[in-house]
Amino acid sequence: MKLWETYHTPRSVDELLALLRQHAGEARIIAGGTDLLVDIRAAHMPPQKALIDITAVHELCEIVDEGDSVLIGAGVTHNQIVRSQLLASRATCLVESCGVVGGPQVRNVATLGGNVAHALPAGDGTTSLVALNAEAEIVKDGQRQWRPIAELYLGPGKSLLDSTRDVLLRFRVPLHTADSATAFSRIMRPQGVALPILGCAVWVELDADRTIMQASRVCLAPVAPTPIRAEAVEAALNGQPAHETSIERAIVAARDSLKPRTSKYRATADYRQEMIEVLLRRTLNRAIERVRTGVSVPEGVGV
Q1: Structural domain tally of the chain?
Q2: Residue 113 domain boundaries
Q3: In sequence order, which residues have a C-beta less than 8 Å from that of residue 150 and are 6 or more positions away?
Q4: Is 298 a member of any domain?
Q5: Which CATH number covers residue 127?
Q6: What is the DSSP letter of 267?
Q7: Against a cut of 0.85, is the pTM above it?
Q8: Bridge-based pairing state of the strands 143-148 and 135-140
Q9: Which strands, in side-by-side order, build the sheet including 196-206?
Q10: N- or C-end of the chain: fewer Cβ atoms within 10 A?
Q11: Mutual angle of helices 244-257 and 269-293, in 10-degree steps
């Protein structure tokens, strides 16, 4: 079966954009191809007239330390993220979420940009990017611009980006300070297709005495058509003592505000509601401990 007619490997963003314009909506961008090629082979989409491979565009495949933040190219693979000491210590939840995607072979080629561009609310990398308050640099309607990560999601599998004309370039991710830390954990079905039942990423900032949660960001997914912050949970945490009573109060807020649906591919609504409580306790306690010790070592990461 012929999967494409022409295959391009641009060396720069300008060359990439020129190819998209040249093909006028009849080309698709490819990086790892772990979704696109599977869909074509399974006849979920037709063979493509042109594929544009971004893996030779250096700007899209590098991790750049900017001090208070880090730039991550959309073509950076999950294993590049897992192996980054900078991200392990200062964006820990992202390493934990990318480290559980697929198996080693998938992580070697699958990219963070692909995880986001697929626009599914259960994306592990996306869950952490939302909690980290990340931004995405995109080319939309010919204009290069930065947008909050959540704005790229319009619905399940529906992206702000036109996959034949627009480009996801990079992510800007704020890094942990000495007063903050993150954690990610998920629960998934071990049999068959490795779909997450639920994932949870949290960012917490403590005061100088490490006793008060001054600020928090929490993302649980999938509980809505798009990845969202659990604002009621955050409101229950902010300004409260960093101990179990506050976490239990946040769990009550989650129970009242988050309504996951039953999914035949994942689990019942009741079970997933119970797992929200499990994941919130696990991730919040882990993040608080990381702030207090000053040590962030990713858990559950495979290479």
Answers
A1: 3
A2: 58-174
A3: 130, 226, 227, 228, 229
A4: no
A5: 3.30.465.10
A6: -
A7: yes
A8: antiparallel
A9: 180-188, 196-206, 212-221, 240-241
A10: N
A11: 150
Percent of the chain as helix, strand, coil, to the nearest 5:
35, 25, 35
Rounded distance between C-alpha atoms, residue 231 and residue 155, angstroms: 19
Give how far the C-alpha of residue 46 lies from the chain's centroid of Cα atoms, to the nearest Å: 28
**Which of 174, 199, 233 is the last residue in one of the domains?**
174
Return per-residue pLDDT of the chain as tens, 303 residues.
Answer: 688 889 999 999 999 999 999 999 999 999 988 888 878 787 888 888 899 999 999 999 999 999 999 999 999 999 999 999 999 999 999 999 999 888 888 899 999 999 899 898 888 999 999 999 999 999 999 899 999 999 999 999 899 999 899 999 999 999 999 999 999 999 986 654 567 789 999 999 999 999 999 999 999 999 989 999 999 999 999 999 999 999 999 999 999 999 888 887 778 889 989 999 999 999 999 999 999 999 999 997 765
Cα–Cα distance, 171 to 82 (Å, whole number): 16
Q: Do 72 and 51 contact (CB within 8 A), yes or no?
A: no
Residue 302 lies in a domain: no
Is residue 266 within 8 A of residue 195, CB to CB? The reply is yes
| Tokens found for residue 63 | 């991790």
DSSP secondary structure, 30-99, as one string: ESS-TTHHHHHHTTSSPPEEEEEE-TT-GGGS-EEE-SSEEEEETT-BHHHHHT-HHHHHHSHHHHHHHT
